[in-house]
Amino acid sequence: MTKKYILGFILAFLLTGTSFLLAATGMVSKQIIIAGILIAAVAQMLVHLHFFLHLDTSSGARWNVYSLLFAFLLIAFFIGGTIWVMFTLNQRMM
Length: 94
Description:
single chain; mainly alpha; 2 domains
């Protein structure tokens, strides 16, 4: 059990370091930096979900995964609805 936590910590540390090095050095183009940081952020989110929150495909964690997916759906609705309301209000005010 401790080995999984250490592996998760090392992966999270490496992904954070990668993002920092991409942003700090500026050795590559801006588009590559942005893409690299986004990829590292998604990978780090998956590392945290798997190693620290124990969300995987096992039967015990299935309901937790469903709850997380439902939360993402609600967040997408809230953000999409907010953007839609702001856009339509902007159109009505013009």
